[in-house]
Amino acid sequence: MSISLNTCILILKEHHLLKSSAIQDTVSPKMEYVSYDSRDIETNTLFFCKGLGFRPTYLSMAKDNGAICYVAEQPYPEGVGMHALIVRDVSKAMALLTAAFFRFPQDDLFLVAFTGTKGKTTSSYFLKGMLDQKNGGKTALISSVDSILGPKPEDKFKSSLTTPESLDLFRDMRRAVDNGMTHMVMEVSSQAYKKNRVFGLTYDLGFFLNITPDHIGPNEHPNFADYLHCKLQLLVNSRKCIINAETDHFQEVYAAATTTTNPDSIYLFARDGFENEDLSVPIDFRIGSLGLDLKGTKFRVIAGSNKAQALPIAGDYQLKMLGDFNQLNGTAAVIGAGLAGMSHDDVAKGVKDVTIPGRMETEFTEKHGFVVVDYAHNQASMMALMHFMQKELKHPRIIVVVGAPGDKGLSRRQGFSESLTAYADKAYLTTDDPGFEDPKEICEEIDAGIDHSKVDVVIDLDRQEAIYNAISESKPGEVVLICGKGADAFQKIRGVDTPYPSDIKVVQQAIAKLEA
After folding, report:
1. How far apart are CA 7 and CA 30, in angstroms?
2. How many helices (H) and strands (E) does the chain have?
3. Three-state secondary structure call for residue 92
4. 396: buried, middle or exposed (CB in 10 Å: 19+, 13-18, 0-12)?
5. Whole-angstrom Cα distance, residue 328 to residue 334?
6. How many angstroms separate the CA atoms of 362 and 369, rounded?
């Protein structure tokens, strides 16, 4: 693959991004590799000077290693002798130019995106399972857990970001297309729009699941308004929109969808019995619960409008994953499958056995409590998880192991305090990707907001020890919730991904030891 200097200039001018350019007569006008990492350079590389931590020495390294053109928001002396494209926004430029470099792979995929404070990963896996039933396993996935770009083992790998940097995303899309994939389901985070990782992309289907305060802090969103604004961009950039009518800020969400999408291409869903007197449009799909237990959930999708009835997906469904909140996630995916051309029987078959690493993974014990490992990592997901356990198990004693990441999501800490106070009987506060912060201080910040007359709190910075102790003290009929890390096999500590067995493996080892 390659891209010419002239093509780059034309694309940047078309989008009013080019401020100036410096062309070198003695340097090749053809770039055969793209990178934003000075350690990843090949001959004739187009190099992007991006990020708050960018240093001019990175450009020198890239030049020495074979880069012949750089894109930046200002000229650098270190780039003398290279082609230079000076732009108004380097992140937007990178998205546009790398899409062209990889020959616009998005045009060869049925592209689906989910956004929401919670439920993105679960809904994405559900829909992938359904679409795989339709296309013979040719659905690619970009999620916060795994990326799946093809049928071979090497085509599946752990994700480092919920939504990759634009260059990596378009490279992944090209790899998926070359591997014969026909559909792609992806999670789109608020940061993906704030950092222009998906700039220029239009989705065939865009889902808005819910919105509650999250990812607010110095390194993320300055306030909730900015967080919501970024989330709404997915709907603005989707051909068809599917919205949870129960979401907070529904009027703003629906208005964003209508800015670019005809109301006939906007689908709403909600649980049976939900009413909103401010809702001026009918709810297309209703969800009726048919039963919940600790092994899964059954629900019915009811078509309530003419356009909903035109999709042959009404009927009963069964999920292997427990939790009443997964009925909403499952219904969103069912609607997506219907809009992708599927009918009820194939959809039901495709979703019934779907499981997700680190999501509602359960372990039963003989001498201790019922253990659940879940990625619940904000107030909304913690509250939903604990509320379900309290309701389903008739108010059991609930023991929670949880921590908060460092350097981001500072608003989560108060949310953890409030959710633990609302539902937990005991909490083990522990380490969860502390980054450059002191994990003890993070735990103390959560602890300070907990009502200790309701919750017994232990701070144990050894996460494996905390998990073992929580299970050890639990008794039959009680619930132990291991929250936050899910299937992550590392701890982010001072810029290093430090190996960690994963919560489910730690749980299994603890149970084996306790019940030997």
Report:
1. 10
2. 16, 26
3. helix
4. middle
5. 10
6. 11
Amino acid at 124: S
Mention every residue, 6+ apart, whose C-beta is less than 8 A from residue 151: 137, 179, 180
Is the per-residue pLDDT at 160 higher than 90? no
Beta bridge partners of 186: 113, 142
Q: Is the pLDDT of residue 35 over 80?
A: yes
Confidence of residue 281 (pLDDT cuts 50, 70, 90): confident
**Which residues, in sequence order, are CB contacts of 318 under 8 Å at separation 6+?**
296, 297, 298, 348, 352
CB atoms within 10 A of CB 358: 20
Write down how long the chain is.
516
Answer whether residue 269 shows pLDDT above 70. Answer: yes
Higher pLDDT, 191 or 114: 114
Which distant-in-sequence residues (6+ apart) come within 8 Å of 333 by Cβ?
Answer: 123, 126, 127, 130, 351
Spatial contact of 242 and 205, defined as CB atoms under 8 Å apart: yes
Give, as one character, the DSSP assignment of residue 154.
G
Predicted confidence at residue 428, as pLDDT, reads 97
Describe the crossing of helices 5-14 and 90-101 by its angle, rounded to 10 degrees.
130
Which parts of 433-494 are beta strand (E)? Answer: 456-459, 479-483, 490-493
| CA 138, 296, 286, 281 torsion-angle sign | negative
8-state DSSP, 249:
T
Q: Is 380 exposed, middle or buried (0-12, 13-18, 19+ CB in 10 A)?
A: buried
Cβ within 8 Å of residue 343, ≥6 positions away: 312, 313
Highest mean pLDDT among 3-17, 290-304, 398-412: 3-17
Both tokens assigned to 107: 């045009």
Closest by CA to 507, choosing from 478, 481, 484, is 481
The type of residue at 52 is L
pLDDT confidence of 216, banded at 50, 70, 90? low
* Cα distance between residue 121 and residue 171, in whole Å: 21
**Amino acid (one-letter) located at 70:** Y
Write out the two tokens for 81: 């002798």
How far apart CA 113 and CA 115 sit, in angstroms, is 7
- Give the count of alpha carbons within 13 A of 444, CB side only: 5
Predicted confidence band of residue 214 (pLDDT cuts 50, 70, 90): low
Quote the CA–CA distance of 237 and 228 in Å, as a whole number.
Answer: 15
Tokens encoding 378: 């904000």
What are the tens digits of pLDDT across the range 415-452?
999 999 999 999 999 999 999 999 999 999 999 999 99
pLDDT band at 33 (very low <50, low <70, confident <90, very high): very high
Q: Which residues pair with 293 in a beta bridge?
A: 296
